[in-house]
Amino acid sequence: MRIPRAIIALTLAVAVAGCGEQSLRALQPPGPGPDEFSVLPVQPLTQPQDYAFLPAPTPGGTNLTDPNPKAEAVAALGGNPNALNPNTAIPSSDAALVTASSRYGVPANTREVVAAEDAEYLKRRGFWSRWRLFPVDRYAEIYDRQAIDPQAQTSALRAQGVETPSSPPE
User: Fold this and answer.
1) Global pTM?
2) Residue by residue, what is the 3-state secondary structure of the chain?
3) pLDDT tens, residue by residue, 49-71
């Protein structure tokens, strides 16, 4: 009688252990809710007429749905939205970063290229991850090799003599 009980206990332990991991995509809020002062009032989302003719992504560009959300937030809080300068889409502190990242040009078909590359990667890596006895987080499994280990990166940079801020504990 001990062997069947051990098998049942082991089976239950394995089944419960498979349900225990929560990933970053758990949709339940971790606390009582958002801070009401960090939420911007936004317009309802709209669907474009044709996805093939979306405008090219521009650094610091405006959103088609909400062209000026900061001014709307200032107006909602009783401030003067005209005090904001609408001509500076990219803050001066980020101008050097935008210049350096776009020095080789920005292709207009970035969305299509990234979508095609991601579909090919999912096709290559995701085939064997579909065959599971219990439901698992396939996203984390497929993209696990592309994740950056912050502790390893911090250690490598510190070994090279680069000053780094303190990292959260492991």
Assistant:
1) 0.38
2) CHHHHHHHHHHHHHHHHHCCCCCCCCCCCCCCCCCCCCCCCCCCCCCCCCHHHCCCCCCCCCCCCCCCHHHHHHHHCCCCHHHCCCCCCCCHHHHHHHHHHCCCCCCCCHHHHHHHHHHHHHHHHCCHHHCCCCCCCHHHHHCHHHCCCHHHHHHHHHHCCCCCCCCCCC
3) 888 877 777 777 777 777 777 77
